[in-house]
Write a structure and sequence with these properties.
By secondary structure, the protein is α+β, with helices and mostly antiparallel strands. The protein is about 45% helix and about 10% strand. It has four domains: about 50 residues; about 60 residues; about 30 residues, no CATH class; about 100 residues, VSR Endonuclease (Endonuclease, Chain A, 3-Layer(aba) Sandwich). It has 14 helices and six strands. Strands 3-4-5-6 form a four-stranded mixed sheet, with helices on both faces.
Length: about 325
């Protein structure tokens, strides 16, 4: 088989593109030569490829160093059409390149767009107020009080629905023996007295933790006017199964701070009987104690001096 000589045009193409061009472009430029022939001829004249088939060319590296730190992602991908964004990021990391300045500006713009508030109307009172887009709901309210008032006027979803006798029997059978016998993780086990005391202390911390904000305000008022009351709302003292907030140091007087939502039936119609003022007054009276009630709305800086007439010393 006769050997086809390399013409000067082919030799110039080989010397110019072999070190950095990809094999696909070399095969197009030297369509009459096979890959093996190109490789052998380049080896004979001492040419070497500076990068592997999958590596970045010098031109691509220059583009990466120039535009990666500040240019947009779409622009960089348009300059490097053969590379994916993950490949570009990995190569930039190897070269020690960072997009700090661009990312800082991008995050600032993103934070500004997210912090923009939208004007909405309260579903209960119709008041106009602003809210972040991430906080928008189907029904928006300007305050917790409006939300509670709106809920009171809505019927319960399960109101008027009565399950059939068969359904109730199925539910009863399903619940029978659910946590009895071997199904109970404490079956056959008993707590030691130390463990019981530990559990009791843990429950006390959950139920009676730190004083509420109105209680903290009264504590400050107690120090300011030197009132003879001690805070016992952490479960320290129980009177007829009730834990008062404050107790008089010498007299049989207890003082409780009532929150409007938990104790005022005009705001919350679902207030329990045990949270009403009259019921608690009767329970304390059975034990020989007098009850003084202070509402949270009365504990203001302007109203501090007026409350002194209500509190026995």
């Amino acid at each position: 088989m006769a050997v086809v000589e390399w013409v000067p045009e082919e030799m110039s193409i080989l010397q110019q593109y072999y070190p950095c061009a990809r094999w696909e472009s070399l095969s197009q430029k030297l369509s009459s030569r096979s890959r093996v022939a190109i490789y052998n001829k380049a080896r004979m004249i001492g040419l070497k490829r500076r990068v592997s088939e999958r590596g970045f060319t010098q031109e691509e590296l220059d583009i990466l160093r120039t535009y990666y730190p500040f240019a947009k992602r779409e622009f960089i991908l348009s300059l490097l059409p053969r590379r994916s964004w993950n490949t570009i990021r990995q190569k930039a990391s190897q070269l020690g390149l960072k997009r700090t300045e661009f990312l800082r500006k991008f995050r600032q713009e993103q934070a500004k767009s997210l912090s923009k508030k939208i004007t909405v109307f309260c579903a209960n009172c119709g008041k106009k107020f602003e809210k972040k887009p991430s906080q928008l709901r189907k029904h928006n309210f300007c305050s917790t009080l409006c939300c509670n008032k709106w809920k009171l006027g809505k019927p319960s979803p399960s109101k008027g629905i009565r399950r059939s006798l068969e359904t109730r029997k199925k539910i009863s059978e399903m619940r029978k023996g659910r946590f009895t016998g071997a199904k109970n993780h404490m079956f056959g086990k008993h707590h030691t007295p130390e463990a019981r005391e530990k559990c009791r202390q843990a429950r006390m911390k959950q139920e009676f933790g730190k004083p509420t904000l109105p209680e903290v305000r009264f504590i400050g008022m107690r120090f300011k006017y030197r009132l003879p009351y001690t805070y016992v709302g952490n479960g320290k003292i129980w009177i007829n199964h009730l834990n008062p907030d404050f107790i008089h140091d010498t007299k049989k007087i207890v003082l409780e701070i009532f929150g409007s939502y938990w104790h005022d039936k005009s705001i919350n119609s679902h207030v329990d009987l045990q949270n009403t003022e009259d019921w608690r007054r009767e329970q304390y009276a059975q034990a020989g104690y007098e009850l003084i009630v202070i509402w949270d709305k009365e504990l203001t800086k302007e109203n501090g001096a007026k409350l002194l007439g209500k509190i026995p010393i």
